[in-house]
Amino acid sequence: MTHENLPLIQFENLFHADRFGQKFWKVFLGAATFERFKKQYELMGEAGAKAAPLSAVADKEPPRLNNFNAVGERIDQVEYHPAHRELEELSYGNGIIAQKYQSPLVDKEKSLRHLIGFSTAYYFAQTETGIFCPICMTDALGYVLEKHPGSLPQVKTALKHIGSSDMKEFWQGAMFLTEKQGGSDVGANEARAERKDGVWKLYGDKWFCSNVDAQCALVLARLPGEEGAMKNGTKGLGLFLLLREEPRGNHRQWQVHRLKDKMGVRSMASGEVTFNGCEAFLLAGFNEGFKMMAEMVNMSRIYNSVASLAVARRALLEAKAFAEKRHAFGAPLTALPLWRSSFSDLAAEFVLLKTLVFETIRQLDKGETGDEDAKGLSRVLTSVCKALSGKFSVFAAAECMELIGGNAYIEENILPRLMRDAQVLPIWEGTTHIQSLDTLRSLRKEGVASLKARLEQALKAGAAAGAVELKAFVEAEQEKLFSRIAAVGAEDFEKQQRSSRALLEQLGRAVGLSLVYELCAAADLKEVAEATLKRLQARTHFFEGPSSSDTNALALTEEIFLREF
Asked: Going from the N-terminus, what domains does the chain have, and what CATH number goes with each?
C-alpha cells in the first residue's frame, strides 16, 4: 500500500513539465519558429519520459561482449538487452539525429540547425545519458564528414546512413582516439597507419573506444615516417574513416578485448581495441589529422554540456515534484525556508549555465553560416561551457538527492543513476584542467574583441529593459573579467597554467551573468532573469551552499523559481 507521504513520481512528457524551458525556447528561437518546431519538442519530451523504465533496465543489464561463437571463431559481437534497442527506437527512431541532416534544418532553416537539434535532444538526455553519448558521436562524426567531404565515396555513403530516419539503414558513429600511454596527451599516441598496395591499414591499440561496435568511426593514427610516441606530436597523426563493413568483414581485422566496467553511462558499450591491419580511408594527413579530429571533439564538448544541463534539469524536476507532495514538520518541503533557498540557488545556477550553453550553440550556428566573429566566440566559450556544466551536473545531482532525502539514495529512484552518469561529464572529452588550458589557447588565438562586443550588447539590452538596478553588478563582473584576462596574459607560461582554472570560472560567471541580464529584455523571462541575478549576486563562486545574505530580498525570488521550475 502506498503511503500518501511517500509520493511515486512519474512524468508523461518532460517538455510539458518544463514551464521555464518552453518560455526559454520561445525567446531564443522567436515565437513563430518555436511553433514550427514545437512538435519535435513534444515528441522528444514524450520519448524522454517513456525512456525512464527502459533506462533503469539498460543500466542494470549493460552490453555484453561475446568474443567467440559456438565453433570457436572470433566474432567480438556486442549483445544488447532489448531495453537498449527500445531506447534506440525512442531516440534515433524519433529523428534525434536525422532531423539535422534532413530538410528544413539542412537547408531552409540551417541557421537554427544546432540550436533546434540540441534543444530538442535535451529532453531525451534528461533520462538516458548512456545512449546520448553514441548520439553525440554519431552527429559529431557526421558534422566533420559534412564539413570535409573530399572525394571519397565512403564519406558520402556514411553521411547518407547517418542522416537516415530508417533504423534499418541508420549507422551509428564513434571516435577511437585515446590510448593507454597518452590519455588527453594525444601527441603521445602510437597506433599507426601503413600504406599497402594503395590501401591504408591500421595497427595498434586504442584504450577507450566508446560505442565500440558502431558502423563507422574516426580514428587517429601515426602516418608512415612518424612512428614512435611523440614524434612531431599531434602533427604526425592522420585522421582516418573506419567502416565496419567496408570491405566486407573489415571488423574481423580488429579485436575487441573487453568492455569497460564503467561507474556510469553503463548502457553504452565502451571497449578496448587492437587493430590488426583493418582497412581505413585517409581524411586528413600530416599536421591536419588532429585539427580535423578537434572539430569532432569540440562538437562532443557541446553535447557534453547539453547532457550536463539535462542531468541537472532532471534532478531539479525530481526534487521539486517530490517536495510538493512530501510533508515534514507540518508543511510541504517546498514551504520550508532552507529547502526553498537551496532549490532556488540551484535553479539560479542552472539558468545561468543553460543560457551560457545555448548562447554558445547559437554562436556556433551563426559561425556555420558565415559569421567569423561568432565562430571565434563559440570556440572560446565551448571549453568554458563544458567545464562548468560538467561540474554543475555532479553538484546538482548530489544536492537534489539531499533535497529529497533517503528515498533518493535507493536505486529504484532515478537520482543514483543520474549521479553515476554525471560523474563522467567533467572527465569525458577533456577534464576541467584540459578545458582550462584550452580556454587560454582560445583566448590567445581569438582575442577578446568579439567577446567584449557581445557583452556590451547584452548590457545595453538589459539596461534598456529597465533592469537598471542590476546593471552595476553585471558591469562590475565584466570589468573584473577583462582585468583578469589582461593580468593572466602578462604572466609567464607556468603561472598562466596555474591561473587558468580561476580564469575559466570567472569567464563563465561574467559571460553567463551578462547573458541572463540580456534576458531581462524578454517579457516572458524577465522575472526569472532578475531573480537569477539577485541570487547569484549573493554567491561569489559556483557550487556554494545556500545563500544567507539579505534573506528577505532573496526569499522573494523563491516563489518565482518554484513556479517556473
From this structure: 172-290 (2.40.110.20), 446-564 (no CATH)
